[in-house]
TrEMBL record:
Residues 1-133 form the DOC domain. This is Anaphase-promoting complex subunit 10. Keywords: Cell cycle, Cell division, Mitosis, Ubl conjugation pathway. It comes from the Eukaryota. One of its GO terms (biological process) is cell division. The keyword DNA-binding does not apply. PANTHER family: ANAPHASE-PROMOTING COMPLEX 10 (PTHR12936), ANAPHASE-PROMOTING COMPLEX SUBUNIT 10 (PTHR12936:SF0). Belongs to the APC10 family. One of its GO terms (cellular component) is anaphase-promoting complex. Gene3D superfamilies: Galactose-binding domain-like.
Length: 133
């Protein structure tokens, strides 16, 4: 198991993108969720507003599926969570699974999340068509 690296203050993903250190590629993928409550879906998960979020609805596991049109190299996943605001919905564990399609996904990393309120940088280098969290 790997413990996530905390993003240092002032080094948020949007700032790193503006400086050219990282490139956001989520817009190149099709996103889907295992479930969501109305008004708490992919749009809220992907917007840049820290006040909006995805809220699952239904039985576990709760999944975020990211499907690229072709094999894509992903080096870092950045996830923001606010335990104080959303403690019952904040994940305690994130499993990263990759594959060429949804039928051959293999877990490559499992991150144990700490109680936090900031962005977690999950370092994992993968080349895949489908990424599931």
């Amino acid at each position: 198991m790997t413990t996530p690296n905390k993003t240092p203050p002032g080094a948020d993903p949007k700032q790193l993108e503006r400086t050219g250190t990282v490139r956001e590629i989520g817009s190149q993928a099709v996103w889907s969720l295992s479930s969501c409550k109305p008004g708490f879906g992919v749009d809220q998960l992907r917007d840049d507003n820290l006040e909006t979020y995805w809220q699952s609805d239904g039985s576990q596991p709760h999944l975020v599926n990211i499907q690229f049109r072709r094999k894509t190299t992903v080096k870092t996943l950045c996830i923001y969570a606010d335990y104080k605001s959303d403690e019952s919905y904040t994940p305690s564990k994130i499993s990263v699974r990759v594959g060429n399609n949804f039928h051959n996904l293999q877990e490559i990393r499992c991150f144990i999340m700490e109680i936090f309120r900031h962005t977690e940088k999950l370092n994992c280098i993968v080349n895949c068509s489908v990424l599931t969290l």
